[in-house]
């Protein structure tokens, strides 16, 4: 890594993170990158319990039933940022709302991992191989919608918990199959648990899936700009394009939408699919355009989102 002389480096950086194994792996990825810069920066992790963290007494409540939905995974961490208890926060971008609290920004992202979903099953090899009427566990409206579009005969039930908890519930027979993000399993060293990878043609990923974002106070952008040395511009452009689609739709974690943007340095390819939660109705956009800047990508995504908003019923968008 090349250290640029125009950067200034703080003596200490405090990183806020959830306490799940995956969140800690991701926070440590950012910590390691800061350490690699070689400026003797003291990096400290602070674990923050959030409203979205699953507890056994919660049972299998769906995320839609939680006040605030996925925003609950970031609420207390963002409060700590605003109160200056931490300097930066590390998030899975798929868990982030498209509109951030005033005074906070996500200017940097690590290179994106595999954004696809994967199937985990003890007795079946893929979605089409699942027995008629079997039980599949997920709290994701998107995964439910895409699954029922392919296999309307299956029974979908909520299944919550961190990655290992859901794997344990599957192996205990609570469900016949479940879905997880490929990126999380790879980062945890659990790729051997994957039964099959689901291609984007069958199940488009969640907005931002596979990407790690670094959130900070907007007034600290100059002070912490050195973090940009290990940020991935391609990931940032693609994820922000995806987020602009959802923002234009007025959508949230309740919205059964899959989005995937890819960028080759000139042309951006955006695929969007919205499916009603019962799997019966489908709306699709698959478009490409040349872009010259990050702003072009955001505007492109917004335009696609606005087109879909005109044709997709409000009750589907959640």
Task: Give an account of the 3D structure.
The chain is of the alpha/beta class and 318 residues long. It folds into 3 domains: 1-112 and 211-231, Periplasmic binding protein-like II (D-Maltodextrin-Binding Protein, domain 2, 3-Layer(aba) Sandwich), CATH 3.40.190; 117-198, D-Maltodextrin-Binding Protein, domain 2; 233-312, Porphobilinogen deaminase, C-terminal domain (Double Stranded RNA Binding Domain), CATH 3.30.160.40. 27% of the residues lie in helices and 23% in strands. The chain has helices at residues 21-36, 75-82, 141-150, 163-171, 182-187, 233-249, 294-309, 314-317; strands at residues 12-17, 42-47, 88-92, 104-109, 117-121, 135-137, 155-157, 177-181, 196-198, 212-217, 257-263, 267-275, 282-290. Strands 2-1-3-10-4 form a 5-stranded mixed sheet, with helices on both faces. Helix 1 links the parallel strand 1 and strand 2 (42-47). Helix 6 runs parallel beside helix 7. It is globular and about 60 Å long. The chain starts with 11 loop residues before the first strand and ends with a helix. The model has no long low-confidence stretch (mean pLDDT 93).
